[in-house]
């Protein structure tokens, strides 16, 4: 970690590398690792909660490290991350969340369909689906193989198919089909999106009224908007 932190522009640091890397032992009297991380996460959240004054002192919240208001430090941190396109505090090295969503969808579909089996015929895949269905992400991670492994080593992955119709640009994009377990063969490719949806214009209802027509004055009609301003 030290070498990676000081690799860029090493000559600018000289003998003092603390601006890039500083390692200290945890002091229990100051807090735990979780509280230390929470402090930095709190400095990079939306500053809307810090625009109000501290109810105890009646003054703005102040960052003890810099002496500036918390609202100002948060805005600076967000601007810095946006400028350098840094996605802060995002978990990495874990199994795909899309597979998690598709497994939960599959479990719900199996529960609603009386003719569907209650369990998958492969114990490992069924255990992963069960973990996702009950909402235990930790178990889902472990059943998938753990963290920091190549994506092609996860047992269950997202299955895709090519769309039947071209989009507005004449392309045939990839869309989600369901889940698959490539290491177990094509048999364990399961569709979770059996229906196809598309946006279509609402058809106009033909006016089948016949006979001589005439204008009606004063009859109630449906409002053009959600608010009817008629005073009567």
TrEMBL record:
The UniProt record lists the keyword Ribosomal protein: no
Provide ranges: composition bias, Basic and acidic residues.
203-212
Source species, domain of life:
Bacteria
Q: Name one Pfam family in it.
A: Phage_GPA
The biological processes this protein is annotated with in GO are:
DNA replication
- Cite a single GO MF annotation: endonuclease activity
Sorted keywords for this record are:
DNA replication, Endonuclease, Hydrolase, Nuclease
What family, per the record?
Belongs to the phage GPA family.
Q: Where is the Replication gene A protein-like domain?
A: 1-47
Query: What's this chain's function?
Result: Possible endonuclease which induces a single-strand cut and initiates DNA replication.
| UniProt-recorded name of the protein | Replication protein
Please give the organism.
Escherichia coli
Disordered: region residues: 203-232
């Amino acid at each position: 970690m030290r070498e990676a932190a000081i690799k860029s522009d090493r000559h600018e640091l000289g003998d003092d590398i603390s601006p890039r890397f500083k390692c200290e032992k945890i002091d229990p009297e100051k807090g735990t690792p979780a509280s230390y991380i929470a402090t930095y996460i709190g400095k990079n959240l939306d500053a809307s909660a810090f625009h109000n004054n501290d109810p105890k002192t009646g003054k703005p919240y102040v960052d003890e490290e810099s002496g500036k208001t918390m609202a100002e430090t948060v805005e600076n941190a967000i601007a810095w991350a946006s400028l350098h396109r840094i996605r802060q505090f995002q978990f990495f090295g874990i199994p795909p969340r899309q597979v998690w969503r598709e497994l939960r969808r599959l479990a719900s579909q199996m529960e609603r369909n009386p003719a569907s089996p209650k369990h998958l015929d492969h114990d490992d895949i069924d255990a992963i689906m069960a973990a996702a269905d009950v909402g235990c992400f930790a178990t889902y991670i472990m059943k998938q193989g753990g963290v920091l492994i190549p994506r092609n080593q996860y047992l269950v992955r997202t299955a895709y198919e090519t769309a039947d119709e071209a989009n507005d640009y004449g392309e045939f994009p990839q869309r989600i089909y369901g889940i698959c377990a490539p290491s177990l063969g094509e048999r364990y490719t399961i569709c979770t999106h059996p229906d196809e949806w598309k946006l279509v214009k609402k058809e106009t209802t033909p006016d089948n009224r016949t006979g001589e027509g005439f204008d009606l004055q004063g009859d109630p009609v449906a409002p053009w908007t959600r608010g009817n301003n008629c005073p009567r």
